[in-house]
């Protein structure tokens, strides 16, 4: 799953931090500060919470529709957003309905300063795991 580093992602640790999608798939976001810090003008925690809230509202839409809703803004994170949404949308829409957006983002280590962030939400797993 996404909670344990490496957790069957099929990639060696040397490439876990190459991009957001790989780090998330390998459960390594917490080990990749350059990915979670994001652009200095972007509050990654707030963007994550907004994406989670929008995903909760989009539970009856297709992956393509969700990408169109979630990823046109801000341009700094469009590519990562599209890749993440397409990879996880079906699984996330099913799991995310009853989760708190702040807890989800804290569990993904995208919100700094959250005490006990890792256990705040159940571990999310990649589709098919």
UniProtKB/TrEMBL annotation:
Keyword terms of this UniProt record? Disulfide bond, Glycoprotein, Secreted, Signal
Primary localisation category: secreted
Q: Which SMART domains match?
A: SapB (SM00741)
Residue ranges occupied by any Saposin B-type domain in the UniProt entry: 41-115
Q: Which GO terms describe its cellular component?
A: extracellular region; multivesicular body
Family annotation (Pfam families):
SapA (PF02199)
Q: Where in the cell is it found?
A: Secreted
| The protein, known as | PSPB protein
């Amino acid at each position: 799953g996404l909670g344990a580093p490496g957790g069957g992602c099929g990639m060696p640790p040397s490439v876990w931090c190459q991009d957001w999608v790989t780090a998330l798939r390998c459960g390594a976001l917490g080990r990749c500060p350059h990915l979670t810090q994001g652009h200095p003008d972007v509050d990654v925690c707030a963007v994550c919470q907004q994406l989670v809230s929008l995903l909760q509202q989009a539970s009856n839409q297709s992956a393509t529709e969700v990408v169109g809703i979630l990823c046109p803004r801000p341009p700094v994170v469009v590519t990562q957003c599209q890749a993440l949404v397409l990879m996880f949308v079906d699984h996330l829409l099913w799991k995310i309905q009853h989760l708190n957006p702040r807890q989800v983002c804290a569990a993904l280590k995208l919100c700094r300063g959250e005490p006990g962030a890792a256990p705040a939400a159940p571990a999310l797993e990649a589709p098919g795991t």
